[in-house]
Amino acid sequence: QVQLVESGGGLVQAGGSLRLSCVASGRTVSGYCMGWFRQAPGKEREFVAAISWSGTKTTTDADSMKGRFTISRDDMKNTVYLQINSLKPEDTAVYYCAATPMAFSTTAGDFGSWGQGTQVTVSS
User: Fold this and answer.
1) What's the whole-number mean pLDDT along residues 80-94?
2) pLDDT over 70 for what percent of the chain?
């Protein structure tokens, strides 16, 4: 089992940027697909971005989120990152990092390991 710990969230003004980090322990994540999801109050968890072990990546095609999120990984540091630019108040949510041994997935149900989440709050 992979243990995941997210960090980097906080309170930021609209238009700002954040870089979230997810450090894995327990085993190397070099063979895992890693993903970021988020959950806003009263809403379902939604997919944000995913990156395969080989570096194939995708981000959500939701109109409100297009072009602002970038996922990357550093397997030497067992860490996955999510860069968020041009933050909007509607980006306010708890952001979760997740891991799956599948080659690639964007479906939350395929991810068996989850972090505790990091809160991102965007003020207008």
Assistant:
1) 97
2) 100
DSSP letters spanning 75-88: TTTTEEEEEE-S--
Q: Using CA atoms, how far apart are residues 49 and 61, in angstroms rounded to an integer?
A: 10
Distances in whole angstroms, Cα of residue 111 to Cα of each of 6, 13, 34, 99, 100 = 16, 31, 8, 5, 5
Measure the CA–CA gap between 109 and 92, rounded to whole angstroms.
Answer: 23
pLDDT in tens, 21-67: 999 998 888 889 999 999 999 999 999 999 999 989 999 988 889 89
Closest CA to 39 of 123, 116, 112: 116
Q: Select from 21, 12, 35 the least CA-distant residue to 86.
A: 12
d(CA 62, CA 60): 5
- Alpha-carbon distance of 49 to 46, in angstroms, equals 10
d(CA 23, CA 46): 21
